[in-house]
Specification:
Layout: H1 2-32, H2 40-46, H3 54-66, H4 70-86, H5 90-106, H6 110-126, H7 130-145, H8 152-171, H9 175-192, H10 195-211, H11 215-231, H12 235-251, H13 255-263, H14 266-272, H15 275-292, H16 295-312, H17 315-332, H18 335-352, H19 354-407, H20 410-456, H21 460-480, E1 486-487, H22 488-502, E2 510-516, E3 526-527, H23 533-544, E4 551-559, E5 564-571, H24 576-585, H25 594-606, E6 614-621, E7 627-637
Helix pairs in contact: 3-4, 4-5, 4-6, 5-6, 6-7, 6-8, 7-8, 8-9, 8-10, 9-10, 10-11, 10-12, 11-12, 12-13, 12-15, 13-15, 15-16, 15-17, 16-17, 17-18, 19-20, 20-21, 20-25, 21-22
């Protein structure tokens, strides 16, 4: 009887306390509608220390609609978004945040719009939807940058943007850029004395150093973050820091210490209920058990993590669980299951990084565009120098001519001729460099654009394969731009890379073949770099692009005498006459200067040889005098 009385008293106190808390919260909501708030940050500060449950949020939303209080309605949807986000119900979180965003825009509540844009970005980042996350944070940042005199609240929102964009850079493995964003955010957080923000940013900096394998720096920043989280009594912050510190200890080989440290927050993470952090902790515990040698224990908790991650759609932790399960089965000698889970991990990683690949390649193209502009500037500078040299030469001609006429001296004329020859040689070198600066960017840009199709279609293996080829192509072009001539062997390798990349746009339908005469020493024969590319490009785009059926290009090199080799490029396309008609019928006409530049380069190249080059086009016909292709014959002197 006495025991029953104690139980009754306990539940009465708990119930009474709950009723009092509910009463205080309802009173706070009621009082809210008596205030006259005109700014969303005022609403946030009013409810700053109020702990809302789902029922209380619904009550605030209902009363806000009844009282037609727009800021109250926006805040209710914001609270619902955060409630569902913390419970890993990301779809519902987005729905509620979008309701808040639409109201903010409809009633022109700029501060509310900035806050909600950042919240939506965080949800997409949790799901590894990189492009969507980045878009929403950038929208928020654009609005903030338009405010001439930002308040402390706006500065806080800007620091949230920078922190979130830094986290996106982390996922893209752009650690230097991420570090810059976090360090900017820390300056603002210190200025505003925001301990929660400092805890988050020091943790992020720790994660950067962890990925850069600077483990001591990572531990220092994680511990600094933990100190701030303990000061503000953040339970979720404590879970995050313990989990991260344990992962660093694993990397340092201190497995038992790591296990003990992460197990301290296992129960706490379960009490909080956020599935993202629960699965993160489970994965870390499982990894510790694997490294200690307790494979069955590790397998059990990692499978538990995997089930939760799959149920709530947490791709990052799902992929990590697959990776750890693969390692368990490998250590057990079950290679079939090990391969199965490894394959799932890789496929999941590929899906997660789809948007990141697109972003990376677009960034690569952007950087390349800048390089093209720089090359054009260099080309203009060289052309300007050529003009100056020509003016100097013309002036010298006039001076020498006058002196020659006055003195009738052959000697002065000979000296002038020597100087003239020197100037002509400088002009020739500069003209060749200018031509290369114009041609190389054009050549590379076409190749780079060809790769984008696989990236857009999410064909990861093909994208990686052709990006590897592209890197070799870039290296070849950069090396060739430094010299006036290259061995024929290097030129053929470069053309092979060019054809394989250009062939992407034709779904690899073009059959490219090389026939090289055994008598030719490919390393000793020299030709101008990239001299064959315009002819191959013409064969593809004028000869084969409009052709149906089998498409072939053959490159042959033959030693026709001790003084010459002949390179033939033969295609089975529609012929030059039909190609010219198609070109005339196009609405957009662009003058091609590729072949003319190539002829000039060939002429400059062969000026130092006894023999000249020759270039012959042959239209190939069948027995009915119908076009069956084109042959380009380039005869290059050896001496």
């Amino acid at each position: 009887m006495k025991l029953f009385s104690l139980y009754f008293l306990f539940f009465f106190v708990i119930f009474k306390g709950h009723c009092q808390d509910t009463s205080v919260l309802e009173n706070s909501i009621t009082t809210f509608f008596e205030e006259d708030f005109d700014d969303y940050f005022q609403v946030q500060k009013y409810f700053e220390k109020t702990k809302f449950g789902k029922d209380e949020i619904d009550l605030l939303l209902w009363k806000s609609k009844v009282n037609k209080n727009i800021l109250g309605e926006i805040h209710s949807y914001n609270l619902l978004g955060r409630y569902h986000r913390n419970n890993t119900a990301y779809k519902k979180a987005i729905e509620n945040y979008l309701n808040a965003l639409n109201l903010s825009r409809e009633f022109k509540k700029l501060n509310a719009e900035i806050v909600i844009l950042n919240q939506i970005g965080v949800v997409y980042r949790r799901q590894d939807k990189i492009r969507s996350a980045l878009n929403y944070h950038q929208f928020a940042l654009e609005l903030i940058n338009k405010i001439p005199t930002p308040t402390d609240d706006i500065k806080m929102s800007k620091s949230v943007c920078e922190n979130s964009i830094g986290n996106i850079y982390l996922k893209l493995k752009q650690y230097k850029l991420a570090l810059e964003k976090f360090e900017k955010a820390i300056i603002t957080k210190k200025e505003l004395q925001d301990k929660r923000g400092l805890a988050i940013n020091y943790h992020n900096i720790g994660f950067v150093y962890q990925n850069l394998e600077k483990l001591d720096e990572a531990l220092f920043n994680y511990n600094k973050s933990l100190q701030y989280n303990l000061e503000i009594k953040s339970k979720i912050g404590k879970v995050i820091c313990h989990n991260s510190i344990s992962n660093v200890l694993i990397l340092k080989g201190e497995y038992k210490k790591a296990l003990k440290y992460v197990q301290e927050v296992k129960t706490l993470s379960e009490e909080i209920g956020n599935k993202f952090y629960i699965t993160s902790v489970y994965n870390t515990i499982g990894n510790c058990e694997i490294n200690i040698g307790n494979l069955d224990k590790g397998k059990k908790i990692i499978k538990n993590s995997l089930d939760i991650s799959l149920k709530y759609g947490i791709p990052t932790n799902t992929n990590k669980s697959y990776e750890y399960l693969s390692e368990i089965y490998r250590l057990k000698g079950d290679y079939e299951n090990a391969y199965t889970f490894y394959k799932k991990s890789i496929l999941g990683e590929n899906e997660t990084f789809n948007d990141r690949n697109i972003l990376y390649v677009n960034n690569l193209i952007s950087k390349y565009d800048n390089e093209v502009k720089n090359n054009k500037i260099k080309s203009l500078a060289k052309e300007n120098e050529i003009t100056k040299l020509k003016l100097t030469r013309n002036r010298n001609i006039l001076i020498i001519a006058l002196v020659s006429i006055a003195l009738l001296g052959v000697l002065l004329y000979a000296i002038y001729g020597q100087r003239l020859l020197s100037n002509d040689k400088k002009i020739l070198v500069l003209e060749q460099e200018a031509l290369q600066n114009q041609m190389n960017p054009h050549f590379v840009f076409n190749a780079l654009n060809s790769i984008k199709l696989y990236i857009i279609n999410n064909e990861q293996k093909n994208a990686v394969y052709y990006l590897n080829k592209f890197s070799k192509l870039i290296r070849s072009i950069l090396e060739s731009s430094k010299t006036k001539e290259v061995p024929l062997s290097d030129e053929l390798k470069t053309m092979n890379l060019y054809m394989s990349i250009e062939n992407i746009r034709f779904s690899n339908e073009i059959v490219y073949h090389e026939n090289i005469d055994d008598e030719i020493n490919l390393d000793k024969v020299k030709i101008p770099p990239l001299i064959l590319q315009p002819f191959l490009e013409n064969a593809i785009w004028h000869g084969l692009s409009s052709k149906k059926g089998v498409k072939k290009v053959t490159l042959s090199a033959t030693k026709i005498s001790n003084d010459f080799i002949q390179i033939d490029i033969l295609d089975n396309g529609i012929g030059r006459k039909e190609a010219l008609l198609i070109k005339k019928n196009k609405s957009l006409k662009r003058k091609s200067i590729g072949i003319e530049l190539t002829k000039q380069r060939l002429q400059n190249f062969t000026d130092v040889y006894k023999h000249n080059y020759s270039l012959v086009y042959t239209d190939l016909m069948d027995e009915n005098n119908s076009p069956i292709g084109t042959k380009v014959s380039l005869k290059i002197p050896l001496s």
